[in-house]
Amino acid sequence: MLHGVVTFLTDYSIAPAELARAVEDAGFESLFVTEHTHIPASRETPWPGGADLPREYAHTLDPFVALATAAAVTSTLRLGTGVCLVAQHDPIVLAKQVASLDHVSGGRVLFGVGAGWNREEMRNHGIDPTQRFAIMGERVEAMRAIWTQDEASYAGKHVSFERIWSWPKPVQLPGPPVLIGGSGPTVFDRVLAYGDGWTPISRQTGDLQQIAERIAELQERAAAVGRDRIPVTLYGGSSSPDTVERMAAMGVDRILHLLPTLPRDEALDHVGEIARRVHGAAD
User: Is the dihedral of CA 220, 221, 223, 229 positive or negative?
Assistant: First the structure.
């Protein structure tokens, strides 16, 4: 079982470099950071987590700036987006950002992607929310073409370009692992179409039994189409030793432990507490 930390890094929380050093020193495999380009001040879309949208959603740092900072002060820590809202990015620019981060980090990027939930946010980027899954799929495919071809082309309904040059290429080929976020009824279609892993959010997927059933369904579908076993990264998993053991038996490969958005000293204390629980689970 791999253990990572996921958090909203903001302009009022612990700085990325300090957090990354602490997470690596505490023995965690990865650090994942969230993304929202902005939050519309007037919005209709309900937040999936409850009634009131937490403050940190409107204050998140750019994930690639934060992860580049983290890369500069660490040597083994995997650097993840949890998740990058791909439909809200130009795919040529995003391919360059991800490849550059993988290059400067020595191949440590885990590219978590999602289509997003905030429809007003999408519309501000010129995205029709009803098309966001199709747009995300084409943009990921287009990025893979840029990463793997010296002279890349892509022709789709939402993305189209001919014969472009773009370097650096990622250290990891055919690109950093693409971890598909989401827990909806069609998420496995996307995982099997263009993903290298599945990243469900624990609170949205259900209890442990429901998560186990979904994992079993994914692996059955993967086998049916000739895919190898699909790695599963659980976003927001428990650090309880008993629960960690159950999750491993269910087929969870990595748990991302949620770190609240906290100032420096409180964040470091919280990382230490999670580490103590995780190391206890590993003993």
Answer: negative
